[in-house]
């Protein structure tokens, strides 16, 4: 019996042959695994779950900032108990996801070893949380001091999408360092989908980092960003070329993204490519395309375009110009 509003499928001799489709899909999977030289499918024990990691990240954000990112019942008198309970659950779930990654990454059965290794990773990660919270405090403060529209640090933390992206990055980067790059990448993509800010978990970013507005920012895997750096929307810290090996496969993990030194400001739409160095206290103007290093204290801007200013109103509606001019002061008319 079908649900209301659901159309009935075709009869058994209708439009599709499920057995044939299943067999053909099985053949495609087999061919893929053979081409990837897998003796057995990676992830036979399972695969890290994006849905579960969304829950983990929600809990970790709440544990780091319980009064602002936690549930409404959290108050000063119960926040320590809330943090302890939330961390216990979040770290247990994260341990399970890291274990699945470790099982995915090996061909042979390594259940006990993966469990122990995942335990070590999560233990080290947990010990890093106070340091990460201190880093995030510096990021919140940098946003408050750097944006005249920010009325409080609480507003920055609750409202700014860049803070969500930076929280995810700080946590993902630590997991990346500890040997869980797949879980870290899933975490970074959770933030990417929610904010439009794409920061690879391998990128190294110093304290007091601020992304103003943020949509469209891309920071590559091997980028190094110094302290007190400010980026605006649409900035790309990308790679200029992708070297390959003798078989034509792209070489992995080579340094190929920019190094941004301390106290640099990069304005909206700037594209900075390759393993170049942007010297400290430099300012990179909007929409600049840069593939060469610049020294400290540089000011890089686009060449001024040649342009002519004309009045669209006067061309398209001269009667409107004259009526406005007649009804307003001479100063207003002069400025039209």
From TrEMBL:
Lineage top rank: taxon: Bacteria
Organism of provenance: Sphingobium vermicomposti
Pfam families: Hexapep
EC number annotated for this UniProt entry: 2.3.1.30
Identification of the protein by name: serine O-acetyltransferase
SUPFAM superfamilies given in the database record: Trimeric LpxA-like enzymes
Catalyzed reaction equations: L-serine + acetyl-CoA = O-acetyl-L-serine + CoA
Keywords: Acyltransferase, Amino-acid biosynthesis, Transferase
Family statement: Belongs to the transferase hexapeptide repeat family.
UniProt record, GO biological process: amino acid biosynthetic process
Cited Gene3D superfamilies: Hexapeptide repeat proteins (2.160.10.10), serine acetyltransferase, domain 1 (1.10.3130.10)
MF term (GO), any: serine O-acetyltransferase activity
UniProt lineage: Bacteria, Pseudomonadati, Pseudomonadota, Alphaproteobacteria, Sphingomonadales
Annotated PANTHER family: SERINE ACETYLTRANSFERASE
